[in-house]
Amino acid sequence: MLNFTVDTEKCTQCGECARDCLYGIIGMDDHPFIREDKEDKCIRCQHCLAVCKPGAISIFGLNPADSAPLDGGLPDPERMETLIMGRRSVRRYKKAGADPALIRHLLEVVSHAPTAVNQQKTRLTVVDDPEAMDRFRERATTAALKVIREGRLPDGMERIADFLRGCESGEDVIFRNAPHLLVASAPSDTLAPMADCHIAMSYFELLANSHGLGTVWDGIAKAVITAIAPELQGVLGIPDDHQIICVMAFGKPAVKYHRSVQRSGENIFRAVP
Ligand SMILES: Cc1cc2nc3c(=O)[nH]c(=O)nc-3n(C[C@H](O)[C@H](O)[C@H](O)COP(=O)(O)O)c2cc1C
User: Which residue puts its alpha carbon closest to atom 31 of ligand 1?
Assistant: First the structure.
């Protein structure tokens, strides 16, 4: 079932795979083996493959040589800090889109984000074609303004309505004229859909910024797609049984920030229990 194999020529019998297995599925004789009574507990995390220094372990038919090597190569802390502190919500974009191959690559990297018990049910739906995005922008804006005009706005959304009226003068307050959109959703039987989707989106945001793209978390687009004009979920091809958790607009920024903003740090509390 797990297709777990050990290259006994390479295995040093160090036992790291057994020690790192979350559910103790791997036992050690001369070499590691799968304990049949626990096999069904495997959450497919691949830690056994990742932790094996000589690359002796294969699981699910995966070749460890196809994994990214991790000897060094991490960004230094100062660069990570600059990325985190220098990221801004971008609300002005160039019309030209980003390379679709780059977008695809970013999303493939983001699929490495953690999910509760490794469920990996987060669906990332991307509009990578700027022309398709313009069609969707038009459709969403028209639908939202129609709902407002006809007084059919769901309860509690009056504040958003005031904001959306900005679209009447041609300003794109929903998508900020971004050429791309990313929607994170998950099916209803997901254990932690909120956390899974927000983590994936946060990873995407930082990675996209490291490639010079701008991003903005788009609560207004989420409200339009999920509550004001819910037919838009189907337009994006997102399955009916999926809950949309968060939406991000992104693209090449038409604004440059020259310094970070300043935060007080007053939300940080030290506990000494
Ligand atoms: C969950 C969430 C929803 C947001 N929705 C919107 C939005 O709909 N439109 C927008 O322009 N900015 C939106 N923002 C961006 C915030 O306004 C922004 O993060 C905040 O003002 C701080 O600015 P900064 O991101 O540049 O540090 C959202 C942010 C979050 C976290």
Answer: 217
Does the beta carbon of 128 sit less than 6 angstroms from any atom of ligand 1?
no
Q: What's the whole-model pTM score?
A: 0.96
Domains assigned to the chain: 5-66 (3.30.70.20), 77-251 (3.40.109.10)
DSSP H helices in 87-218: 100-110, 130-149, 158-164, 193-210
Looking at the predicted structure, is the pLDDT value of residue 182 above 90? Answer: yes
Residue with structure tokens 């399955």? 239
Pocket test for ligand 1, best of 88, 89, 261 (most atoms within 8 A of CB): 89
Rounded Cα distance between 4 and 27, Å, is 12
- Please give the distance, rounded to the nearest whole angstrom, from the Cα atom of residue 174 to the centre of ligand 1: 12
Q: Which amino acid is at 166?
A: G
Name the residue with the closest Cα to ligand 1, atom 21: 89
- Cα torsion 205, 206, 208, 214 to 10°: value is 70
Atom of ligand 1 nearest to the CA of 221: 8
pLDDT in tens, 11-48: 999 999 999 999 999 999 999 999 999 999 999 999 99
How far apart (Å, rounded) are the C-alpha atoms in residues 126 and 140? 16
Q: Give the atom of ligand 1 at the shortest distance from the alpha carbon of 222.
A: 8
